[in-house]
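Recall from the previous lesson that a structure prediction takes nothing but the amino acid sequence as input. Here we apply that procedure to ABC transporter ATP-binding protein from Ancylobacter mangrovi. The sequence below is the only information supplied.
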Amino acid sequence: DPILQFRNLSMDYTGRSGRVTRALDGIDASVGRDEFVTLLGPSGCGKSTLMKIAASVVRATGGEVLFEGRPLAKPTSRIGMVFQQPILMPWRSVLDNVLFPIEMMGRSPRKHAEQARELLELVGLKGFESAMPSELSGGMQQRVAICRALIYDPVLLMMDEPFAALDAMTREDLGIELLRIWSERRKTVLFVTHSIQEGILLADRVLVMTARPGRIAASIPITLPRP
Ligand code: ADP
Ligand code: ADP
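The prediction returns the following tokens.
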């Protein structure tokens, strides 16, 4: 069974004037267990809308989303999210940022500190546990955000243009880093990008979207050897 399934999903945004924009139109797609799927498409094709629906931040106006075979109704810690901007809390250390979701759920950060340290080590941030976010580069901050998304050991990791705010060199480093994390932990990933290189580098399969309205035009298996 797929982990995530979009079934005939549509999304209409109604503007203040009452004008309706169809952002998504009949999206049928799925992400299988241990699969790394890239959602690739131009700006405005509905990638972020699809991510927000999968994260239960907004509700689709038509169709349904199934997560582990059941309709997805509310945000769940079983889905980890990484956004374009890391949005760390500037007054908290790196470790305390990673542990923030644990606190939010009313659980004990102390019991999870070791797990947080392991994640930071995995992304090459050993030794930065007590650093403050402002002391880190953009790429390092994004890696902290990835650890924060993984702290609950989610079944599905969703990343919406996680490298958008980074320069080309950092993007490349982070891409390889992510690939390593994924292959070490066998996470199921849904990765959103408008960069063909990024999309192919990391994916088992690429879903290509077109805009106005947002549709999935192709599902392409990637058979290239990994770097
Ligand atoms: P992408 O992430 O691929 O750039 P988006 O999901 O952001 O695409 O947007 C898809 C379409 O929906 C675009 O035409 C965009 O203008 C429109 N849209 C997105 N968010 C809103 C909103 N809150 N209200 C109205 N229209 C929106
Ligand atoms: P604590 O009270 O220290 O937070 P728990 O006994 O609540 O510990 O959690 C044990 C393990 O179960 C943790 O490693 C955590 O990752 C996982 N876990 C707890 N709640 C959830 C949840 N809602 N979704 C996914 N995993 C969870």
